[in-house]
Amino acid sequence: MMYINDAVSRKIIDILTGAEEPLETKEVETKLKNVSRVKVLYRLNNLRGEGLIKGKPVGSGKGAWIWWRAGVFR
Q1: CA torsion sign, 15 to 19 to 25 to 27?
Q2: Distances from the Cα of 35 to the Cα of 2, 22, 30, 60, 71, angstroms
Q3: What is the rounded distance in angstroms from the CA atom of residue 32 to the CA atom of residue 45?
Q4: Rounded to the nearest 5°, which phi and psi values hold at 22?
Q5: Judging by beta carbons within 10 Å of its beta carbon (0-12, 13-18, 19+), is residue 36 exposed, middle or buried?
Q6: What is the residue-wise DSSP string for 26-64?
Q7: Could you report the per-residue pLDDT of 14-53, keeping only the tens digit for each?
Q8: Is the dihedral of CA 33, 39, 40, 44 positive or negative?
């Protein structure tokens, strides 16, 4: 696994690893107290770009995505 040196990114990985199903962006935000939505979205997209998590837009709402740990749900 790639070394993550950012506390918010590490926490996101921990949240998604412990989840029993993919989580919506809002659910991830709720678990990260005192972290702005912009920072959460930035970190989620960076982690997705690095291949550590997967994400998929859902519904017609803006910014409505689901996220999961890469390789967990097959």
Answers
A1: negative
A2: 23, 20, 9, 25, 26
A3: 16
A4: -60, 145
A5: exposed
A6: HHHHHHSTT--HHHHHHHHHHHHHTTSEEEEE-SSSTT-
A7: 999 999 999 999 999 999 989 999 999 999 999 999 999 9
A8: negative
Token pair 């930035």 is at which residue? 42
User: Is 90 exceeded by the pLDDT of residue 2?
Assistant: no
Cα–Cα distance measured from residue 25 to residue 35, given in angstroms and rounded to the nearest whole number? 13
Q: Which residue has the tokens 């702005």?
A: 36
Q: Which domains does the chain have, with CATH numbers?
A: 7-69 (1.10.10.10)
Strands 23-24 and 53-57: unpaired
pTM of the model: 0.85
DSSP single-letter state for residue 21: S
What are the structure tokens assigned to 66, written together? 């689901």
